[in-house]
Amino acid sequence: MLVIVWAILALLAALALVAITARSARSVLPPLELAPGETLPSTPVQRLARRGLAVGVIAAAAAFGLVAWSGPTTYVDDDPTRLAVTGLLLVSLVILAAPAMIAGTWGARGAARLDERDRAILATASNGQAGAMLVVLVAWVIALTEAYRGQPGIPDTYLNLIFWSCALVSMAAWNVGVLLGYRRS
Fold first, then answer.
1. Would you say the C-alpha torsion 59, 138, 17, 104 has a positive or negative sign?
2. Closest alpha carbon to 183 in 36, 40, 15
3. Is 118 helix (H, G, I), strand (E, B) or coil?
4. Could you state, in order of their start, the residue ranges of all structural domains in the chain?
5. Against a cut of 0.85, is the pTM above it?
6. DSSP character for 31?
7. How far apart, in whole angstroms, are the C-alpha atoms of residue 63 and residue 146?
8. DSSP label at residue 126
9. What is the pLDDT of residues 135-147, one digit of tens each?
10. Burial of 32 per CB tally in 10 Å (0-12, 13-18, 19+)
11. Other CB atoms within 10 A of residue 64 CB
12. Where are the strands (E) in 24-182, listed by range?
């Protein structure tokens, strides 16, 4: 159970790293001149990222909650639980990746939905992905080392969980990068 706590802490640290990276990248975007009190409506890319992040994180949380409830090393032995977790993880990954794929398609086609600010934000959205995955990997290494210190090995189930957590954090980091790119100070 301690390993799951470490994984949750790693996800939070990864999101914090993404926020810091996106905030520093935001300064290179062209400034907008608005009248005092004037706000911009959300763009199609912003709405895509917001919806994808919300639904994808809920599906991922359900999957990791199911793993935590059944136990990280025992969920693999129960076929219905393993299939449910895998299905939730796949759905979560597709939902988190969909905004990036759709925005990439819009950019490749030269869609009128994207202006130069959208393109600049999309260009910097991935800045935090590698750092977020690195934080998750470091947290997993520390957690597993501490949990299995003095034992002959670590259960191979954790390799699966490490892969999924890195994949999901990477795609969530892209969505967070988009949302932070649009955020104003």
1. negative
2. 40
3. helix
4. 2-18+50-182
5. no
6. P
7. 24
8. G
9. 888 888 888 888 8
10. exposed
11. 23
12. none
